[in-house]
Here is the input.
Amino acid sequence: MSIKVNYNNMMQRVLGEHGLTDQQLAQSADLCLHAHQVVEQNRGKGMQGWMDSPYNQQDVVARIKEVAKRIQNECETFVVLGIGGSALGPIAVFNALKHLYYNELPRSVRKAPKFYVLDNVDPERISALLDVIDLNTTIFNVITKSGATSETMSQYLVVMDMLNKKFGRKAREHVIATTSESRGNLIKLATEEGYETFYIPDGVGGRFSELCPVGLLPAAVVGIDIEEMLRGAREMDQLCQNNTSIDKNPALAMALLQHLSIKQGKNVSVMMPYADSLKYVADWYCQLWGESLGKEKDVDGNIVNVGQTPLKCLGATDQHILIQLFNEGPYDKVITFLEVANYRTDIFIPAGCDKVPDVNFLCNNTMGTLLSNELYATKYALTKRGRSNFTITLDKVDEYHIGALLYMLQMQTAYIGVMLNINAYNQPGVEGGKNAVYALFGRKGYEAFAEEMKNAPQDVDKYTV
Ligand code: PA5
Here is the structure.
């Protein structure tokens, strides 16, 4: 496996009092074994259906590839309507694996439709998108597992109204639904209207769904090799499945490092790629980590209010925004660096500044070397000040490594969920907000919630300036 996790900079050996000891790691062997056992016992069961994704999708992959080919031939624009777990994976994978200015490339170079993801209900953004696309040649992929998410379903209603007015019965040819087969509103609408439909398996939750049709269809449409992504995930799964110790299982090692760090009061998990292509992997990770671990109760019903706040950053950009805080602020963070050993392209910094030695030192190097050295230097400075950090190195950014990386982060989340004794797969805190929106809009069945909201303390002028 050409993904490596280097956690030297988590250890007391280099961090001093803020680091972890070999003894702490050794004493956690049973905890790791337990986490591994529980995750394996539940493989494919309940909400761990995502662990089957690398293995059981031959038929659906074949159909996705067929539909993607048709879309590539017939369409100019592909728009995902979705939010949270139904948007972040497609955004992360698209940005990781396609040209960073993909939509600006000529069609002859792209060889596939332009790609947009609408993951908000800001009317200005929706209007702006409608200004730049041609409905005649656009396919909308509505992705919502529950079919109940107000943001996605309102986008769907707006788009369908336009499509119906323009195309009548043929409107349905512009829509692909990705949703639960067994429940929810979108499946009802999809069946009634006859949309092309892909299913999100019951045991695959939103934030664990990139490697099912949620992510695979958009990826295939823009020409990403989804079988390679699944191969990467499969190989990472084998590595994790067959190894119960942190010496061989990188996801288990990362879970333990974070678990021990949380116990030290390090309640912020920073994800900092040194590659623009991986910027949105950090976004995706934020949801995975935040929603999975941020829980009021443990599985036994005890109030624990546990979690580690994820924070997305980008190297080198955020060196000029947040590194001051990371170096000198509270010792409350673990920084995960995402490093790329081989950038897909490099740029030479030419000679020609001999008269200004303070600039000239940059000459005759490459931008890739500069970025790598910035990462090295940042790690050095943080470590010297006792700041916990570890590095995930990808040999390169391609389908195989992205599949493996996302899967590894999902496994890390599964393991730490067991270590923290919480349910990593529910999100009652998200449901609370969703229900409040239903109540505000007077949705049937939410009358009691509306009443409760009405009786909540009202704002008073005293606290408004
Ligand atoms: O991880 C999750 O389950 C959530 O973040 C969902 O992805 C998000 O709320 C969107 O839900 P849905 O796909 O049902 O529209």
